[in-house]
Amino acid sequence: MAKRSTLFCSYRHQVLRNWQSTEAVLTKENFVYPILVHDKPDVEEPLEALPALTRYGCNRLEAHVGPLVDKGLTSVLIFGVLQNLSKDVRGSNADSENAPAMQAIRKLRSAFPNILIIADVCICSYTSTGHCGICCDNGDIDIDASVKRLAEISVNFAKAGCDVIAPSSMMDGRVAAIKSALKENGFGNKIPVLSYSAKFRSFFYGPFLEATKSCLPKQDKKMYHLPPASSGIAHRALKRDIDEGADMLMVKPSFAYTDILRDAKTMFPDIPLAVYQVSGEYAMLLKGAEEGLYNLDDGVLEVMTGLRRAGADIIITYFAPYVLDWLSVKK
Ligand SMILES: [Zn+2]
Asked: Which residues of this protein are catalytic (predicted)?
């Protein structure tokens, strides 16, 4: 006679369920809040493309972030958005004196000395081409020039006071160049690199591109974002970034890529792993709840738990302010 299963007894009590779920427990420290910073310092502009989100000028950040820090927010991810300042081929206003990201890092550093400030490093929000690198005359990406520029921006963000550099461009060699530039400027042992390593070409980025006023019409970044159907190239991209010295890895987007998340955790179990729940995924979850398909907190927390279970240690999400409230009154 086959042995009768008794699995049920292992999770019938709440404490037993907690013991079964250590890898998928949600704490406030798991969440990073991405903030879009407007280049007009006093602006507070609701985002049509990203419902329930706002672009803040740097003078408005403290009032917005303060209550979230009081609720337990521990980490933010900074993106600059240009509306007034000009865009050019090399993305000069990524890290100029008046650049929104530079100002935001300085303001947040002085207002909240203890939060972890992660600076996204790319130039697509600041270039006239909308590309993540500097383009050659024939439209190709000039990898060497791009990587050099990304390293330069990273050092300036480090000098402004950020804690983590997060290169999102997918340019080959960027992690090595950034690590080396940080080291040369005295930040080698101070600032880790969280690399957007397995970043796929995705149609779920749409609202973000609109919100950051990207010059590139919707798509196409095919030449450097990974093809969605391939796991092999994603594994190689993760390995490339580790070989170049990345301190933390990221998979982006989330919903359609949880297998890659699991693969990344299996390949590099000792490296903190982040997942980015992107704008389209955020909007989709929000709209589903608005339509009455599920309660927003139940639906979103279930998804977050799934991302943790798949291997994410860090979840970057526009839902971070909501999650802080929900975890404060955990069911
Ligand atoms: Zn970019």
From this structure: 199 (schiff-base intermediate with substrate), 252 (schiff-base intermediate with substrate)
Please give the distance, rounded to the nearest whole angstrom, from the Cα atom of residue 283 to the centre of ligand 1.
Answer: 20
Q: Where are the domains of the chain?
A: 25-328
Q: Does residue 252 have an active-site annotation?
A: yes
What does each of the 331 residues of the chain score in pLDDT, given as a tens digit? Answer: 667 877 888 887 878 877 777 778 899 999 999 999 999 999 999 988 788 889 999 999 999 999 999 999 999 999 999 999 999 999 999 999 999 999 999 999 999 999 999 999 999 999 998 899 999 888 889 999 999 999 999 999 999 999 999 999 989 999 999 999 999 999 998 999 999 999 999 989 887 777 776 766 544 677 788 999 999 999 999 999 999 999 999 999 999 999 999 999 999 999 999 999 999 999 999 999 999 999 999 999 999 999 999 999 999 999 999 999 999 986 5
Ligand 1 center from residue 179 Cα (angstroms)? 19
Ligand 1 centre distance from Cα of residue 234 (Å)? 18
Q: Is 222 a catalytic residue?
A: no
Cα 124 to middle of ligand 1, angstroms: 4
Among the options 40, 87, 199, 265, which is catalytic?
199
Q: What is the CATH number of domain 25-328?
A: 3.20.20.70
CA of 69 to the centre of ligand 1 (A): 28
Annotated active-site residue in 40, 221, 252, 265? 252
User: What HEC string does the chain produce?
Assistant: CCCCCCHHHHHCCHHHHHHHCHHHCCCHHHEEEEEEEECCCCCEEECCCCCCCEEEEHHHHHHHHHHHHHHCCCEEEEEEECCCCCCECCCHHHCCCCCHHHHHHHHHHHHCCCCEEEEEECCCCCECCCCCCCECCCCCECHHHHHHHHHHHHHHHHHHCCCEEEECCCCCCHHHHHHHHHHHCCCCCCCCEEEEEEEECCHHHHHHHHHCCCCCCCCCCCCCCECCCCCHHHHHHHHHHHHHCCCEEEEECCHHHHHHHHHHHHHCCCCCEEEECCHHHHHHHHHHHHCCCCCHHHHHHHHHHHHHHHCCCEEECCCHHHHHHHHHCCC
